[in-house]
Automatic annotation (TrEMBL):
<dbReference type="GO" id="GO:0003924">
    <property type="term" value="F:GTPase activity"/>
</dbReference>
<feature type="domain" description="Tr-type G">
    <location>
        <begin position="20"/>
        <end position="48"/>
    </location>
</feature>
<dbReference type="InterPro" id="IPR000795">
    <property type="entry name" value="T_Tr_GTP-bd_dom"/>
</dbReference>
<dbReference type="Pfam" id="PF00009">
    <property type="entry name" value="GTP_EFTU"/>
</dbReference>
<dbReference type="InterPro" id="IPR050055">
    <property type="entry name" value="EF-Tu_GTPase"/>
</dbReference>
<dbReference type="GO" id="GO:0005525">
    <property type="term" value="F:GTP binding"/>
</dbReference>
<dbReference type="GO" id="GO:0003746">
    <property type="term" value="F:translation elongation factor activity"/>
</dbReference>
<protein>
    <submittedName>
        <fullName>Protein containing Protein synthesis factor, GTP-binding domain protein</fullName>
    </submittedName>
</protein>
<dbReference type="InterPro" id="IPR027417">
    <property type="entry name" value="P-loop_NTPase"/>
</dbReference>
Length: 51
């Protein structure tokens, strides 16, 4: 027989509230065709705009 004991977490977890829009975007393509460069450019642009 197995018994599972639930451990209490000593650290309180803060409630996560999503205040920004959230979208998952997948990229496909061959190696060295700019997927990482495109993702980095989008991330940088959004960060500069405060998103």
């Amino acid at each position: 027989m197995f018994s599972i004991k639930k451990e209490e977490n000593s650290m309180a977890k803060a409630k996560f509230e999503r205040t920004k829009p959230h979208v998952n975007i997948g990229t496909i393509g061959h190696v060295d065709h700019g997927k990482t460069t495109l993702t980095a450019a989008i991330t940088k642009t959004l960060a500069m705009k405060g998103f």
